[in-house]
Amino acid sequence: MSVTTETTYSSASQAMPIGTPRHHIIIFAVLLGLLLIAPFLLYPVFIMKILCFALFASALNLLLGFGGLLSFGHAAFFGSASYVTAHAAKVWGLTPEVSILLGTGSAAILGLLIGALAIRRQGIYFAMVTLAFAQMVFFFALQAPFTGGEDGIQAVPRGNLFGVLSLADDRTLYFVVLAIVFGGLLAIYRIIHSPFGQVLKAIRDNEPRSISLGYKVNRYKLAVFVMSAALAGLAGSTKSLVFQLASLTDVYWTMSGEVVLMTLLGGMGTIFGPFVGAAVIVTMQNYFASFGAWVTILQGTIFVISVLLFREGIVGVLSKWIKKPL
Amino acid sequence: MFELLGIPPQALFGQLLLGLINGSFYALLSLGLAVIFGLLNIINFSHGAQYMMGAFVAWMGLTYLGIPYWGALIVVPLVVGATGVVIERLMISRLYHLDHLYGLLLTFGLALIIQGLFRNGFGVSGLPYSIPSQLSGGTNLGFMFLPNYRAWVVVASLLVCFGTWFAIERTRLGAYLRAATENPTLVGAFGINVPRMITLTYGFGVALAAFAGVLAAPIYSVNPNMGADLIIVVFAVVVIGGMGSILGAILTGFGLGIVEGLTKVFYPEASSVAIFVIMAIVLLVKPAGLFGRTA
């Protein structure tokens, strides 16, 4: 056992040197620097939307790009967390950090339930099962008494962080959101590069071999599913405070499709791809919002082009150019 | 008036009939998915959009060209099936050497494009399509009133499902098809044009979806979103049945339609999630699906 584990790690470390590569630290630092000055140049709510979706897409990428599991139902976690946070902040009057924790926690529990069932099937079936369960969550949100049906939960108070700091101002909220999202992204980076992440990649690349090496494959799959669900929930919770709204759009299948698109466009299995994908798609939605159904057509077209010609995604192509993993 | 389990028989049989109608659509659509999956190994996410296209092309045929319902029943599947052939040749055929998930992503994108185009052209309010005069009205069966058109939907769906099953399981062409599912290289070595067969199979699966769309046009209003939610339920049906068997897809489709109808009678709040709950139970008890081979 120990011998085989060692060989696995040594082959992995050939692909990626031990320790954090310097160019990753530089990119994270430059990204943080840009995001710190961004709210003084651009509309803060717009960047917060990008940040929330960047975290959402990175959470999906953790599952899809590193676990090899395509979930077509991640809106269930994003949306349910968004509802729970909105309800906790508005009806129970809880502070934002507690509301976000509750939303994230409920997404994790939902992830445990759906994940435990979904990992019983592989490949295409896994995608269909997650999509079907997400639709079930959508019907629940449509009918449940506390979700407000078609109206959703509107005018959610942003409240005071830890009961002291008012988040009503967009820029104040921005730095809190930046801290949450950046923390989430670093956590995902850490998970990917931990021994757990290495095993995950081994399972993605060769499941039968991982089983024969003695790994409890299903436990790893379930664990990464729950982590991904919780992080998607964190993104949904934060989003509901930013827009002060939780609505059916957050749990609908189109949302699941959008986040898959962001990940695919940015680059599946890359570290910075989902961020780039989210930024491109959110910007596009912003500028084409007045064209109605054309946004859907454009998104569909990007899907088709990405799959046919551009499977590595934007960051995947860049990474090939500079011959370093991004 | 007698009652069954505290439910008036009209309500019970009415919901059973509705369930049977829904089941007809589940069966037709999951059959198409199973046929496509069998040979192409992809899940056709645009199946719902192609079903919607079927209904729209029937409406356009009637409105712009005066093609009556009975003509549409034959012409529309051919037209929409032909678009399927083009899509397979131009796009899907480029993905066979890749992970099957790319087929899913591609057809999802296509579904978005098709839906968006129809929403742009026709809005979302829905267009009426009248029931053909031969099938208007209904028959009083004594215990319930049976609208003729709905009876026709069930009969037509059963006929097409049985015809497809017969063609695949009992004819020479079907034997080639099943052989190609098992081992395309060997079948090609016997001089059968497998790529063409794959293309036509996709076209046929899409034509089945379009046929279901024409059947649905007079019952449901013709609108761009009619296929989107339906296809997710059909995915659940496919997971429950497993895609290994043609007959399995048909039986599961009808069976689940009836179960859903019964839930509407006894516990209406749960009717929209009944199929998903069954899917959860099947995943726990028999992960490969009721008729599926273990993966």
From TrEMBL, chain A:
Pfam family, one: BPD_transp_2
Transmembrane segments: 25-43, 50-78, 98-117, 124-142, 172-192, 222-247, 259-284, 291-310
Membrane-protein topology: Multi-pass membrane protein
InterPro entries with a match to the protein in the record: ABC_transp_permease, LivM-like
Chief subcellular location: membrane
Keyword Membrane set for record: yes
Protein location: Cell membrane
GO cellular component labels: plasma membrane
Protein name in UniProt: Branched-chain amino acid ABC transporter permease
Biological source species: Devosia marina
TrEMBL record, chain B:
Membrane disposition: Multi-pass membrane protein
Subcellular location: Cell membrane
GO-annotated cellular components: plasma membrane
Organism lineage: Bacteria, Pseudomonadati, Pseudomonadota, Alphaproteobacteria, Hyphomicrobiales
Transmembrane parts of this sequence: 12-39, 101-118, 149-168, 200-220, 232-259, 266-285
Keyword list, A-Z: Amino-acid transport, Cell membrane, Membrane, Transmembrane, Transmembrane helix, Transport
GO BP of this protein: amino acid transport
Keyword Heme carried by entry: no
Name of this protein: Branched-chain amino acid ABC transporter permease
A GO MF label: transmembrane transporter activity
Stated family: Belongs to the binding-protein-dependent transport system permease family. LivHM subfamily.
Organism per entry: Devosia marina
